[in-house]
Design the sequence.
């Protein structure tokens, strides 16, 4: 699933009707349900998970809760539907949520978070992700955030949606806590530097699709937009075109590279092959893995192996953009 652009989960807003509206504007923006507490499904409205239609994919089911068993049970039920991902809410600061010990309050209990995630992963067949804050209250975000993320990624969680400010669990309303304290995008950039293998999607105060580029945050995998998506949904009208153009570009890169390697097989003079490989360096300008690909291109002795590795990298781009 391409997570370049997603609409943040919002209680009372991102229901099936709003998601239908967005699908008329963009087919590829990732959509989230409102947060649903696991107990609300198990002991309340059992049909809650059915409240979506297939036109809404790609769609992420956001769960709240802190009981690993119950989260696991709900995740198992969710397999019957076509959700593409389950996301655990670790970012909601509301007093009702905190007093229930879930949402952002859970960030203070990484061991319990791990148990919850392991249980969800054990029961759900597709991707499992988290939505987090930079920390809570007086936490030192430099250390605690990295420790927290490190602990969570140990259960093989690879996708993190990060609301770029702390959760204040005492003294602010959730509404105030969406403006205070100030956003800290720099901390999210640093998080990606420290955990380059993780897919990190940034959230908070974003109003434009070219946010990553404009803020020198292109190392991140995507943006998540909440309130602006609700007040100005037409900003998503350009998403499909952007992603399709990217797909065509990535597809061609795979094809061109593959054709070049086929062509080299017809050349007997190794020096000519070497020259051909050097000519290919410019193809990967701007590609995330350009450095690695260029090193592989210089390895003429093991050309077959390099070909395989380079094509695997390019294939991943195609899958990611699909
Ligand atoms: C009305 C409203 C309801 C929200 N409900 C949820 C929720 O159910 N789950 C969640 O993780 N975040 C929830 N949030 C937080 C948003 O997902 C997002 O993190 C926050 O609004 C910051 O992004 P923005 O500045 O783009 O709006 C809610 C926000 C709003 C405004």
Sequence:
């Amino acid at each position: 699933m391409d997570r370049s652009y997603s609409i943040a989960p919002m209680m009372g807003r991102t229901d099936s009707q709003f998601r239908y509206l967005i699908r008329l504007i963009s087919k590829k923006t990732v959509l989230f349900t409102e947060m649903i507490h696991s107990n609300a499904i198990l002991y309340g409205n059992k049909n809650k998970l059915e409240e979506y239609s297939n036109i809404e994919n790609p769609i992420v089911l956001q769960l709240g809760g802190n009981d690993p068993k119950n989260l696991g049970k709900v995740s198992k039920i969710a397999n019957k539907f076509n959700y593409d991902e389950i996301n655990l809410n670790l970012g909601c600061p509301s007093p009702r949520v905190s007093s229930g010990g879930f949402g952002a309050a859970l960030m203070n209990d990484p061991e319990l978070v791990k148990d919850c995630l392991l249980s969800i992963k054990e029961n759900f067949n597709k991707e499992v992700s988290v939505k987090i804050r930079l920390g809570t209250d007086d936490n030192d975000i430099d250390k605690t955030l990295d420790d927290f993320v490190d602990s969570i990624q140990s259960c093989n969680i690879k996708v993190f949606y990060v609301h770029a400010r702390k959760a204040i669990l005492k003294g602010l309303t959730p509404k105030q806590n969406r403006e205070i304290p100030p956003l800290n995008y720099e901390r999210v950039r640093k998080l990606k530097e420290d955990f380059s293998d993780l897919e990190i999607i940034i959230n908070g105060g974003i109003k434009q699709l070219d946010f990553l580029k404009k803020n020198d945050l292109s190392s991140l995998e995507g943006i998540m937009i909440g309130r602006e998506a609700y007040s100005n949904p037409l900003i998503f009208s350009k998403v499909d075109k952007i992603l399709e153009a990217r797909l065509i570009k990535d597809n061609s890169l795979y094809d061109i590279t593959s054709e070049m390697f086929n062509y080299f097989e017809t050349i007997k003079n190794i020096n000519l092959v070497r020259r051909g490989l050097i000519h290919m360096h410019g193809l990967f300008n701007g590609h995330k893995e350009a450095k690695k690909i260029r090193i592989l291109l210089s390895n003429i002795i093991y050309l077959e192996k390099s070909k395989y590795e380079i094509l695997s990298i390019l294939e991943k781009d195609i899958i990611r953009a699909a």
